[in-house]
Protein backbone atom coordinates (compact mmCIF):
# COMPACT_ATOMS: atom_id res chain seq x y z
CA UNK A 1 0.00 0.00 0.00
CA UNK A 2 2.78 2.42 0.90
CA UNK A 3 4.46 1.79 -2.44
CA UNK A 4 1.30 2.65 -4.35
CA UNK A 5 0.83 5.84 -2.32
CA UNK A 6 4.46 6.83 -2.97
CA UNK A 7 4.10 6.22 -6.71
CA UNK A 8 0.81 8.15 -6.80
CA UNK A 9 2.16 11.24 -5.06
CA UNK A 10 5.51 11.28 -6.84
CA UNK A 11 3.59 10.80 -10.10
CA UNK A 12 1.41 13.78 -9.27
CA UNK A 13 4.57 15.81 -8.55
CA UNK A 14 6.06 14.86 -11.90
CA UNK A 15 2.71 15.54 -13.57
CA UNK A 16 2.72 19.01 -12.02
CA UNK A 17 6.04 19.77 -13.73
CA UNK A 18 4.76 18.35 -17.03
CA UNK A 19 1.73 20.60 -16.72
CA UNK A 20 3.76 23.75 -16.09
CA UNK A 21 5.70 23.09 -19.29
CA UNK A 22 2.80 21.85 -21.42
CA UNK A 23 0.39 24.59 -20.30
CA UNK A 24 2.47 27.14 -22.18
CA UNK A 25 2.58 24.94 -25.27
CA UNK A 26 -1.17 24.39 -25.10
CA UNK A 27 -1.90 28.09 -24.65
CA UNK A 28 0.42 29.18 -27.44
CA UNK A 29 -0.91 26.66 -29.93
CA UNK A 30 -4.55 26.84 -28.91
CA UNK A 31 -4.76 30.62 -28.91
CA UNK A 32 -2.20 31.46 -31.60
CA UNK A 33 -1.68 28.33 -33.72
CA UNK A 34 2.09 28.35 -33.11
CA UNK A 35 4.13 25.17 -32.57
CA UNK A 36 6.98 26.43 -30.43
CA UNK A 37 9.93 24.03 -30.38
CA UNK A 38 12.02 26.57 -28.43
CA UNK A 39 9.77 26.26 -25.39
CA UNK A 40 12.24 23.97 -23.64
CA UNK A 41 14.98 26.61 -23.55
CA UNK A 42 12.62 28.94 -21.65
CA UNK A 43 12.56 26.23 -18.98
CA UNK A 44 16.34 25.75 -18.92
CA UNK A 45 16.97 29.50 -18.85
CA UNK A 46 14.61 29.96 -15.92
CA UNK A 47 16.17 27.02 -14.07
CA UNK A 48 19.73 28.27 -14.57
CA UNK A 49 19.03 31.87 -13.59
CA UNK A 50 16.91 30.74 -10.65
CA UNK A 51 19.77 28.58 -9.39
CA UNK A 52 22.35 31.34 -9.93
CA UNK A 53 20.31 33.75 -7.83
CA UNK A 54 19.54 31.18 -5.14
CA UNK A 55 23.19 30.15 -4.82
CA UNK A 56 24.19 33.77 -4.22
CA UNK A 57 21.37 34.64 -1.82
CA UNK A 58 21.48 31.33 0.01
CA UNK A 59 20.42 28.15 -1.73
CA UNK A 60 19.32 26.44 1.49
CA UNK A 61 17.21 29.34 2.73
CA UNK A 62 13.50 29.76 2.03
CA UNK A 63 14.20 33.28 0.82
CA UNK A 64 16.64 31.97 -1.76
CA UNK A 65 14.19 29.29 -2.90
CA UNK A 66 11.29 31.75 -3.20
CA UNK A 67 13.50 34.22 -5.07
CA UNK A 68 14.62 31.48 -7.45
CA UNK A 69 10.97 30.77 -8.32
CA UNK A 70 10.32 34.44 -9.03
CA UNK A 71 13.52 34.89 -11.05
CA UNK A 72 12.91 31.66 -12.97
CA UNK A 73 9.40 32.77 -13.93
CA UNK A 74 10.58 36.26 -14.93
CA UNK A 75 13.50 34.86 -16.96
CA UNK A 76 11.23 32.46 -18.86
CA UNK A 77 8.68 35.23 -19.43
CA UNK A 78 11.29 37.70 -20.75
CA UNK A 79 12.87 35.13 -23.07
CA UNK A 80 9.46 34.11 -24.42
CA UNK A 81 8.33 37.71 -24.97
CA UNK A 82 11.49 38.55 -26.91
CA UNK A 83 11.15 35.38 -28.99
CA UNK A 84 7.58 36.22 -29.94
CA UNK A 85 8.23 39.88 -30.61
CA UNK A 86 11.31 39.51 -32.81
CA UNK A 87 10.88 36.08 -34.39
CA UNK A 88 7.46 34.43 -34.16
CA UNK A 89 5.36 37.57 -34.67
CA UNK A 90 6.56 37.78 -38.26
CA UNK A 91 5.63 34.16 -38.96
CA UNK A 92 1.98 33.78 -38.00
CA UNK A 93 0.14 31.37 -40.34
CA UNK A 94 3.51 30.21 -41.71
CA UNK A 95 3.90 26.93 -39.85
CA UNK A 96 6.92 25.52 -41.64
CA UNK A 97 8.90 28.69 -40.99
CA UNK A 98 7.76 28.63 -37.35
CA UNK A 99 9.12 25.13 -36.89
CA UNK A 100 12.43 25.93 -38.59
CA UNK A 101 12.99 29.14 -36.63
CA UNK A 102 12.06 27.74 -33.21
CA UNK A 103 14.06 24.52 -33.72
CA UNK A 104 17.05 26.58 -34.83
CA UNK A 105 16.68 28.89 -31.84
CA UNK A 106 16.52 25.91 -29.47
CA UNK A 107 19.69 24.36 -30.91
CA UNK A 108 21.57 27.67 -30.80
CA UNK A 109 20.53 28.48 -27.23
CA UNK A 110 21.42 25.00 -25.94
CA UNK A 111 24.87 25.45 -27.47
CA UNK A 112 25.09 28.87 -25.79
CA UNK A 113 24.16 27.34 -22.43
CA UNK A 114 26.84 24.69 -22.97
CA UNK A 115 29.38 27.45 -23.38
CA UNK A 116 28.22 29.40 -20.31
CA UNK A 117 27.41 26.67 -17.78
CA UNK A 118 29.17 23.67 -19.29
CA UNK A 119 27.77 20.38 -20.53
CA UNK A 120 27.86 18.62 -17.16
CA UNK A 121 24.79 18.78 -14.90
CA UNK A 122 24.83 21.40 -12.15
CA UNK A 123 23.54 19.88 -8.92
CA UNK A 124 21.16 22.10 -6.97
CA UNK A 125 20.20 22.35 -3.32
CA UNK A 126 17.23 23.85 -1.56
CA UNK A 127 15.87 24.39 1.94
CA UNK A 128 16.38 21.40 4.21
CA UNK A 129 12.64 20.75 4.39
CA UNK A 130 12.50 20.04 0.65
CA UNK A 131 15.07 17.26 1.05
CA UNK A 132 13.11 15.68 3.88
CA UNK A 133 10.09 13.40 3.61
CA UNK A 134 6.56 13.37 4.98
CA UNK A 135 4.89 10.08 5.84
CA UNK A 136 1.54 9.60 4.08
CA UNK A 137 -0.25 6.27 4.74
CA UNK A 138 3.09 4.64 5.45
CA UNK A 139 4.86 6.13 2.40
CA UNK A 140 7.78 8.51 2.91
CA UNK A 141 7.15 11.16 0.24
CA UNK A 142 9.80 13.80 -0.61
CA UNK A 143 8.43 17.21 0.33
CA UNK A 144 9.39 18.90 -2.94
CA UNK A 145 6.64 16.86 -4.64
CA UNK A 146 4.01 18.64 -2.57
CA UNK A 147 5.44 22.04 -3.51
CA UNK A 148 5.30 21.18 -7.23
CA UNK A 149 1.67 20.06 -6.94
CA UNK A 150 0.58 23.20 -5.09
CA UNK A 151 2.36 25.52 -7.54
CA UNK A 152 0.87 23.75 -10.57
CA UNK A 153 -2.67 24.01 -9.15
CA UNK A 154 -2.19 27.72 -8.43
CA UNK A 155 -0.85 28.33 -11.95
CA UNK A 156 -3.81 26.49 -13.51
CA UNK A 157 -6.30 28.54 -11.50
CA UNK A 158 -4.47 31.79 -12.28
CA UNK A 159 -4.43 31.15 -16.04
CA UNK A 160 -8.11 30.17 -16.12
CA UNK A 161 -9.12 33.25 -14.14
CA UNK A 162 -6.95 35.46 -16.34
CA UNK A 163 -8.52 34.19 -19.55
CA UNK A 164 -12.11 34.33 -18.28
CA UNK A 165 -12.19 37.32 -15.93
CA UNK A 166 -9.75 39.94 -17.27
CA UNK A 167 -9.96 42.37 -20.16
CA UNK A 168 -6.79 41.02 -21.75
CA UNK A 169 -8.12 37.49 -21.42
CA UNK A 170 -11.30 38.45 -23.29
CA UNK A 171 -9.24 40.20 -25.97
CA UNK A 172 -7.10 37.12 -26.43
CA UNK A 173 -10.11 34.81 -26.76
CA UNK A 174 -11.84 37.21 -29.12
CA UNK A 175 -8.68 37.59 -31.19
CA UNK A 176 -8.48 33.86 -31.62
CA UNK A 177 -12.07 33.67 -32.88
CA UNK A 178 -11.93 36.68 -35.22
CA UNK A 179 -8.62 38.53 -35.29
CA UNK A 180 -9.58 40.91 -38.10
CA UNK A 181 -12.75 42.06 -36.32
CA UNK A 182 -10.91 42.76 -33.07
CA UNK A 183 -8.24 44.68 -34.97
CA UNK A 184 -10.94 46.70 -36.74
CA UNK A 185 -12.22 47.79 -33.32
CA UNK A 186 -8.84 49.42 -32.67
CA UNK A 187 -7.51 46.76 -30.30
CA UNK A 188 -3.86 45.73 -30.68
CA UNK A 189 -4.14 41.95 -30.88
CA UNK A 190 -0.38 41.58 -31.35
CA UNK A 191 0.30 42.85 -27.83
CA UNK A 192 -2.26 40.40 -26.46
CA UNK A 193 -0.58 37.52 -28.29
CA UNK A 194 2.81 38.61 -26.94
CA UNK A 195 1.27 38.39 -23.49
CA UNK A 196 0.19 34.79 -24.18
CA UNK A 197 3.77 33.90 -25.09
CA UNK A 198 4.97 35.66 -21.95
CA UNK A 199 2.60 33.72 -19.71
CA UNK A 200 3.66 30.45 -21.32
CA UNK A 201 7.32 31.33 -20.83
CA UNK A 202 6.73 32.25 -17.18
CA UNK A 203 5.07 28.89 -16.51
CA UNK A 204 7.96 27.10 -18.22
CA UNK A 205 10.57 29.04 -16.23
CA UNK A 206 8.73 28.27 -13.01
CA UNK A 207 8.55 24.62 -14.02
CA UNK A 208 12.29 24.68 -14.71
CA UNK A 209 13.13 25.74 -11.16
CA UNK A 210 10.83 23.08 -9.69
CA UNK A 211 12.18 20.45 -12.11
CA UNK A 212 15.74 21.20 -11.00
CA UNK A 213 14.73 20.37 -7.43
CA UNK A 214 12.70 17.33 -8.48
CA UNK A 215 15.60 15.79 -10.41
CA UNK A 216 18.33 17.36 -8.28
CA UNK A 217 20.18 19.07 -11.12
CA UNK A 218 19.90 21.50 -14.02
CA UNK A 219 21.61 21.12 -17.39
CA UNK A 220 21.40 22.78 -20.82
CA UNK A 221 19.34 19.87 -22.19
CA UNK A 222 16.92 19.55 -19.26
CA UNK A 223 14.34 21.72 -20.98
CA UNK A 224 14.56 19.86 -24.28
CA UNK A 225 14.19 16.52 -22.49
CA UNK A 226 11.06 17.66 -20.68
CA UNK A 227 9.78 19.31 -23.87
CA UNK A 228 9.40 15.86 -25.45
CA UNK A 229 7.00 14.77 -22.71
CA UNK A 230 5.30 18.17 -22.75
CA UNK A 231 4.49 17.72 -26.45
CA UNK A 232 3.18 14.21 -25.72
CA UNK A 233 1.00 15.62 -22.94
CA UNK A 234 -0.27 18.40 -25.21
CA UNK A 235 -1.21 15.96 -27.99
CA UNK A 236 -2.88 13.48 -25.63
CA UNK A 237 -4.78 16.22 -23.81
CA UNK A 238 -5.82 17.92 -27.03
CA UNK A 239 -4.01 20.76 -28.75
CA UNK A 240 -5.17 24.02 -27.24
CA UNK A 241 -7.00 22.53 -24.24
CA UNK A 242 -5.64 23.67 -20.87
CA UNK A 243 -7.90 21.23 -19.04
CA UNK A 244 -6.76 18.45 -21.34
CA UNK A 245 -3.12 19.32 -20.63
CA UNK A 246 -3.76 19.06 -16.87
CA UNK A 247 -5.49 15.67 -17.19
CA UNK A 248 -2.92 14.29 -19.61
CA UNK A 249 -0.03 15.48 -17.42
CA UNK A 250 -1.33 13.38 -14.54
CA UNK A 251 -2.05 10.35 -16.76
CA UNK A 252 1.38 10.40 -18.42
CA UNK A 253 3.30 10.91 -15.17
CA UNK A 254 1.40 8.19 -13.27
CA UNK A 255 1.77 5.74 -16.15
CA UNK A 256 5.48 6.51 -16.27
CA UNK A 257 5.95 5.99 -12.54
CA UNK A 258 3.99 2.74 -12.30
CA UNK A 259 5.49 1.25 -15.46
CA UNK A 260 9.01 2.11 -14.34
CA UNK A 261 8.43 0.40 -10.99
CA UNK A 262 6.33 -2.62 -11.94
CA UNK A 263 7.51 -3.22 -15.53
CA UNK A 264 11.28 -2.85 -15.17
CA UNK A 265 11.79 0.75 -16.27
CA UNK A 266 9.48 0.74 -19.29
CA UNK A 267 7.81 4.03 -18.38
CA UNK A 268 8.88 5.95 -21.48
CA UNK A 269 7.78 3.08 -23.73
CA UNK A 270 4.40 2.91 -22.00
CA UNK A 271 3.90 6.65 -22.56
CA UNK A 272 4.62 6.26 -26.28
CA UNK A 273 2.12 3.39 -26.46
CA UNK A 274 -0.49 5.59 -24.76
CA UNK A 275 0.23 8.35 -27.28
CA UNK A 276 -0.23 5.91 -30.17
CA UNK A 277 -3.53 4.60 -28.75
CA UNK A 278 -4.90 8.13 -28.33
CA UNK A 279 -3.85 9.18 -31.83
CA UNK A 280 -5.45 6.07 -33.33
CA UNK A 281 -8.71 6.24 -31.39
CA UNK A 282 -9.13 9.97 -30.80
CA UNK A 283 -6.79 12.03 -33.02
CA UNK A 284 -8.05 15.33 -31.54
CA UNK A 285 -6.92 14.29 -28.06
CA UNK A 286 -8.90 13.71 -24.88
CA UNK A 287 -10.26 17.26 -24.64
CA UNK A 288 -9.46 18.64 -28.07
CA UNK A 289 -11.97 19.85 -30.63
CA UNK A 290 -12.82 17.41 -33.35
CA UNK A 291 -12.10 18.53 -36.88
CA UNK A 292 -15.24 19.41 -38.83
UniProtKB/TrEMBL annotation:
PANTHER family assigned to the protein according to its UniProt record, in alphabetical order: ABC TRANSPORTER ATP-BINDING PROTEIN, BRANCHED-CHAIN AMINO ACID TRANSPORT SYSTEM PERMEASE PROTEIN LIVH
A Pfam entry, by short name: BPD_transp_2
One cellular component term from this protein's GO annotations in UniProt: plasma membrane
GO terms of molecular function: transmembrane transporter activity
Transmembrane segments: 6-27, 34-53, 65-87, 99-117, 146-163, 192-215, 227-254, 261-280
Subcellular localization(s) per the UniProt record: Cell membrane
InterPro entries, per database record: ABC_transp_permease, BCAA_transport_permease
GO BP terms in the entry: amino acid transport
UniProt source species: Ornithinicoccus hortensis
Membrane topology: Multi-pass membrane protein
Name the UniProt record assigns to this protein: Amino acid/amide ABC transporter membrane protein 1 (HAAT family)
Similarity remark: Belongs to the binding-protein-dependent transport system permease family. LivHM subfamily.
Keyword set, alphabetical order: Amino-acid transport, Cell membrane, Membrane, Transmembrane, Transmembrane helix, Transport
CDD domains: TM_PBP1_LivH_like (cd06582)
Domain of life: Bacteria
